[in-house]
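Can you give me the bound-state structure? Components:
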Amino acid sequence: MLSVMKYLKKMYPTVQLLYEPESSLYDDHHPSTSARTELGPNAIDPWSPDSNSAPVDLVITLGGDGTILRASSLFKTGPVPPVLSFSMGTLGFLLPFDIHDFQSIIRDTFEQRVTVLKRMRLACTIHDADGKEIGGSTSAGLQVMNEVVLHRGRSPHLSIVDVLVDGVHLTEAFADGLIVSTPTGSTAYSLSAGGPIVHPLAKALLLSPISPRSLSFRPVVLPETSKVTLMVNSKSRTPAEISMDGHEPSTGFRVLSPGQSVKVQESPYPIPCVRRTSIAGSEMNSERNGDCDIPDGDGRSDDWVRDINTLLQFNATFRNKGILKQIQSSGN
Amino acid sequence: MLSVMKYLKKMYPTVQLLYEPESSLYDDHHPSTSARTELGPNAIDPWSPDSNSAPVDLVITLGGDGTILRASSLFKTGPVPPVLSFSMGTLGFLLPFDIHDFQSIIRDTFEQRVTVLKRMRLACTIHDADGKEIGGSTSAGLQVMNEVVLHRGRSPHLSIVDVLVDGVHLTEAFADGLIVSTPTGSTAYSLSAGGPIVHPLAKALLLSPISPRSLSFRPVVLPETSKVTLMVNSKSRTPAEISMDGHEPSTGFRVLSPGQSVKVQESPYPIPCVRRTSIAGSEMNSERNGDCDIPDGDGRSDDWVRDINTLLQFNATFRNKGILKQIQSSGN
Amino acid sequence: MLSVMKYLKKMYPTVQLLYEPESSLYDDHHPSTSARTELGPNAIDPWSPDSNSAPVDLVITLGGDGTILRASSLFKTGPVPPVLSFSMGTLGFLLPFDIHDFQSIIRDTFEQRVTVLKRMRLACTIHDADGKEIGGSTSAGLQVMNEVVLHRGRSPHLSIVDVLVDGVHLTEAFADGLIVSTPTGSTAYSLSAGGPIVHPLAKALLLSPISPRSLSFRPVVLPETSKVTLMVNSKSRTPAEISMDGHEPSTGFRVLSPGQSVKVQESPYPIPCVRRTSIAGSEMNSERNGDCDIPDGDGRSDDWVRDINTLLQFNATFRNKGILKQIQSSGN
Amino acid sequence: MLSVMKYLKKMYPTVQLLYEPESSLYDDHHPSTSARTELGPNAIDPWSPDSNSAPVDLVITLGGDGTILRASSLFKTGPVPPVLSFSMGTLGFLLPFDIHDFQSIIRDTFEQRVTVLKRMRLACTIHDADGKEIGGSTSAGLQVMNEVVLHRGRSPHLSIVDVLVDGVHLTEAFADGLIVSTPTGSTAYSLSAGGPIVHPLAKALLLSPISPRSLSFRPVVLPETSKVTLMVNSKSRTPAEISMDGHEPSTGFRVLSPGQSVKVQESPYPIPCVRRTSIAGSEMNSERNGDCDIPDGDGRSDDWVRDINTLLQFNATFRNKGILKQIQSSGN
Ligand SMILES: NC(=O)C1=CN([C@@H]2O[C@H](COP(=O)(O)OP(=O)(O)OC[C@H]3O[C@@H](n4cnc5c(N)ncnc54)[C@H](O)[C@@H]3O)[C@@H](O)[C@H]2O)C=CC1
Ligand SMILES: NC(=O)C1=CN([C@@H]2O[C@H](COP(=O)(O)OP(=O)(O)OC[C@H]3O[C@@H](n4cnc5c(N)ncnc54)[C@H](O)[C@@H]3O)[C@@H](O)[C@H]2O)C=CC1
Ligand SMILES: NC(=O)C1=CN([C@@H]2O[C@H](COP(=O)(O)OP(=O)(O)OC[C@H]3O[C@@H](n4cnc5c(N)ncnc54)[C@H](O)[C@@H]3O)[C@@H](O)[C@H]2O)C=CC1
Ligand SMILES: NC(=O)C1=CN([C@@H]2O[C@H](COP(=O)(O)OP(=O)(O)OC[C@H]3O[C@@H](n4cnc5c(N)ncnc54)[C@H](O)[C@@H]3O)[C@@H](O)[C@H]2O)C=CC1
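Here's the bound-state model for the whole set.
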């Protein structure tokens, strides 16, 4: 992280560097006193979501898929600046770039030779049995990038949850839990629960059950304009735990009692993620992203195809001798 | 059918009635000589897709889901008039109305108290190994409402098919077959093959494998702008049979040899289907459908929710005692 | 429950009635003071698993599927007497008889006009990283009738669990959890997790993953002689919670840390369950069950077929108009 | 193949070599005139299933999984000699040995340092609507090693098939087809259709649907003593094609009309397959296999575990960086 900062400082001296003080919760790469010394005392400032400081133009994350989920959770109330994500080792679905290439990629980014993929987010609000909003969510709603989950958690008993779509009762679910996912989240928990793979540019919400007591609860793909409500059924013997992108809601409200509900819909604030293929420079277009000058990609699916094939081992056919031979030769 | 025609003739004497001569292939309700006698000699004329006669303003189908698929196949080259579909007994996904209610529904339709659901169709073209279009498809491409399927058919051997999305190679499938489906088709063959349920208003294409020799070929949801190519792999020991909405392509071209391919993308000509809930009259909007004056519905999901629950028995929870008791009491 | 007891006392005065004092935890039908008054002061005695009182000849359960799981958990160390289970309303997989018919069924049972289905149980022991048994399990091992589950519980992170079969490493599972199930348990949690339906007479163990982070973790059917070990991987960021038949182990040991494991194998003590079809009296055979004189059934599948069709709504075909009509007519 | 024969002739001169004349249908390795010249005129004789020549003591197959299925189909009426199977390149589920190691493996086999895995087969008979056997099947029934399939074949319409287990009606299937599989066959077609992986030593039959028009047709595991009947329903608009181990029945009877049925049960004649792990010599036991002196293995699961992991890529976790790195580095 330090070397990334030093590089930025050297190449783009007028850039104001900020860091997220909590990030040390997630990795060990957070700027130590020595870092500050090396960069100079005012080279880098802490940043907080509520700060009144100048708006952020670019977010850089370093670490696992969790770091970008964390970054997403910090931008709750308005447009999100483009996010440039580096993996520290393993590639990930949300991590197009390897840290070793950081110099050339940062250069491409600053020189606007990249495009972004706008990843849809969901805006969620939590409600009491009488419909009143609770849980202290912000005006724009809690923002999630992967999914909202209701789960029985430690309770030995199934939770019973009613699902409403645009106010119409769709079904009553007896299950370990339910997932409302973005296309981005379709390769996260929903995939484990048996859901389909949804291309990040498809305009859709995904409803997937977790271990439902039913032979016939198939995952459901809804229009992105749908408003989905998950309400703990009054018959449910147990409350249900909410989790958002794998964490409890940032407001700390964690458990829904019977009658309480969470409402989910598309957020007006997607996350513009700097894309791998875009580097080629050949596929710019002219739509602009807020204050930031990185154009949208045109939806070419190279990154995504590569990811589902190498990271998920999608359709690893038994006959795929290429893979097979490697496995054998590696004595695996 | 006769009574429907008589009713139309009586209520709307200036309406020109047409019938599809081939429809007798599909059911027994085709107008006999006696019908013509009863209605008067010029009351009803045969119609063919290529006819130069005046454009059709409304299509009425009577029969199973197959009748509307058939109607769809007749409109190949331009906008499709609204389709009003009656079931002759069983309700179906594509059959919102029961024939017993035909009078009131026809009245509502003529008086524009209904809305339509525009169901996406796919436009397909068939190509030789060198990319040249074959199979005599029309300019707009072959139109399908449910899905295109490539299947090994009677061959004992798996077919090997390459899937390309927007020109990028997604995967090589060893399988009984592959399905590219519309949201409408998601509750047809794709569902049997393990695919998710896609709401008809979701903008998406669905790629589902049929019995793939892989543990990891999950169904894939693509943006509706995707161009999908299915190409029989040159290693494939068998050709693959094409079927469109359950029939061989109307051009009669039925078998793809290794190297040949079918290309699929969203058609510019959806089918405007008269909707059940729209009858309520409360949810009109003002977008007009071509020459026809029936407005689009606003996407409320009542019909669809009812259909997946009653027709598919979606998420029939084991505890669903309502259903259970009925089954028991009926001695089933 | 009182009326069952009174009936037993009247018809079979020499029978010694016992009751399980904890059963009030599970339902409200537990003998009150008034019951004791009515039956006479010594008519009924409390019973506990450790009691030195005379062995039990027949267990009668009243309530949901949970009551028989509870009864199973009380017989830990030797052969189990036949179990006669009545539902108090809903039929269940483990509840062949309706309480309304109790008189005739008790008569059939006492007069040996019934047969039993021996339901396999699993014997489990819990081990430390060095292999030493912990958790205070009894000599015969903890007995489960449905399944043993390791689950991440409330932890937001996936658990990592190694699976060994007969000492050979089968796989490393990143998942919400893992299930080792009996054929009986195949219609319980395992079914929700995507497992196959296993006939109770099939000799097999079933390993099913719960929401695995893998596209290719298919459920596995093992010979009933297999010894399966689930060990929390040392890399696992979270411990895993054990649950047995939906409860924490009766020894109170609930959480496995990395390195700890649970070993599972077929128990020598199945549960002989009095069967519904056997009542017909036509399918006796001569194998005897311990001290009890109820013969084994011959494995005819009538009960099971009825159960999977009516309780699970197995293969409820969309065309199943019988069911459909009932649903519609009931205005559902 | 020639070199295998020469080796056998040299090492074990008293062994009588036979070959299956039809095998040239399956590969190119069939003994040519030159082979006969080299080996000597009487060194090798053709063999046919009906021949009255001396019984076979050992079968050697060379080729893909199909060659052992073919060998199985030749032994229809009695005990099968042990089968030693070599792959000519790709390993397969039924192909434990690589042809490169043939010398040491043949030596181990002749010196009885190997064990066998008895793979269950199914015995099938085909019946008319009135129950009379048709299709000219032999007395012991048609023998299959993987599975029997009923499939709609080229018909565009779903077939409707009734499933009976031990004479009790289990379900009416609207589907592309149905599979009754052995444990061995569980990794073949049934796996593609969504079935579980069944260990070859589990005593069970597996019923798996192919693309059923139902959300709730889960695969079913039955006791190996079950008698399963698949009968084409009289309502079925199409006949159903039978295939056995991927081929039409050897009697040439290929299509079942409505009312006709196929009955399936465990065959008394399993296939003793020489096993890989057994070579270690450490796990012999004393049960003898007919005239052949190779003992049964003790069911250790090493081979199987290796196969499902390397051949099927069972539970290839996304985090499996070992595999991942190889894929990346190979530029795949
Ligand atoms: N059974 C399961 O599969 C569970 C999955 N999760 C997922 O974990 C996510 C939180 O991730 P972390 O904070 O990293 O927790 P974590 O460290 O527990 O990792 C979960 C895994 O999911 C991967 N992941 C995250 N987002 C992804 C995406 N959009 N596509 C593909 N893979 C993705 C991560 O790389 C990591 O391998 C949640 O949003 C949820 O989707 C959470 C609980 C259970
Ligand atoms: N294994 C399977 O499930 C197979 C399904 N099909 C489907 O059959 C369709 C052709 O239908 P028909 O000419 O009526 O043939 P058909 O008479 O063979 O009926 C197929 C069944 O699918 C139903 N169906 C058709 N479209 C549907 C939709 N969009 N949503 C829900 N259900 C639907 C029909 O009502 C009928 O029950 C094809 O487009 C294909 O989707 C075709 C072959 C195999
Ligand atoms: N997501 C899920 O499906 C979950 C299922 N369970 C199951 O609950 C069982 C405990 O049952 P209860 O104490 O009654 O808890 P419970 O009151 O939470 O009920 C669980 C449901 O499973 C049913 N059930 C239990 N055993 C069954 C069997 N062998 N076949 C078919 N259905 C069965 C019960 O009738 C009840 O509907 C556990 O052994 C586990 O199998 C537990 C947690 C989650
Ligand atoms: N969609 C599918 O998966 C289909 C599968 N098959 C299977 O093909 C078998 C016939 O095999 P071939 O004559 O070689 O035809 P084939 O050359 O078409 O090969 C089928 C594939 O199945 C593999 N296979 C065969 N038996 C296996 C087993 N027990 N476990 C794991 N893999 C196995 C073969 O190695 C080959 O890769 C049939 O018994 C049937 O199981 C047949 C048709 C469709």
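A couple of observations. Confidence is low (pLDDT under 50) at residues 24-29, 279-292, 320-332 of chain B. Residues 2-120+270-300 of chain B form a domain with the Rossmann fold fold (CATH 3.40.50.10330).
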